Amino acid sequence: KAYPQGALSPRIAALHPGDSLLVRGPVGGAARLAPAVHAVGFVAGGTGITPMLQVIYSLVRSRSALPRLRLLCFNRRAEDILVADELAELSAAHPEQLRVFHSLRDPPAAWSGGRGRPSEEMLQAQLPPPAPHVRVLWCGPPAFNSTVRELLGELGYADGMLHEFS
Q1: What b/e sequence results for 64-99 when a residue is b if at least 16 CB atoms lie within 10 Å of its CB, and e otherwise?
Q2: Which of 17, 67, 136, 152 sees the fewest Cβ atoms within 10 Å?
Q3: How far apart are the C-alpha atoms of 122 and 22, rounded to whole Å?
């Protein structure tokens, strides 16, 4: 998916079959989670699901006792949800540890998930509450990231509990 104002997606979308692309990473800082972390909230806007999925897979593979994971995915329409089947499989494989919540800005009439953009009420209802053993990670477009950062601050999450992928 290419975002016209995106930093990377327009470049990738302009590639043709046979073109080369050098990839390195992760870039933007790794989110380290100490063993004392018992709950992690993830807030993903659109393609911001990418680093969230990487962290979730890393936790699933490396921890014998998986922390409680809450993933909130925000998209415009149902067809914009990326890796929906993969997320459903992951949450089914770890039903006690991983809960996935989808919210759509333009939901179909029969939609039973969340509606709208991130709000204080929605984040408070879906994320683990602020505590020393809690971390919240988020990624999305710049305006999304700013909104989430502001809302998390209003909800009482301290800087040491937060990590923004940008």
Answers
A1: eeebebbbbbbbeeeebbbebeebeebbeeeeebbe
A2: 17
A3: 38
Retrieve residue 160's tokens.
Answer: 């040491």
Distances (CA, A) of 85 to 59, 79, 88, 92, 162: 19, 12, 5, 10, 28
Q: Kindly report the backbone phi and psi dihedral angles of residue 74, in degrees, each rounded to the nearest multiple of 5, phi listed first.
A: -115, 125
Length in residues, the chain? 166
Burial class (CB in 10 A: 0-12, 13-18, 19+), 49: buried
Specify the pTM: 0.85
DSSP 95: T
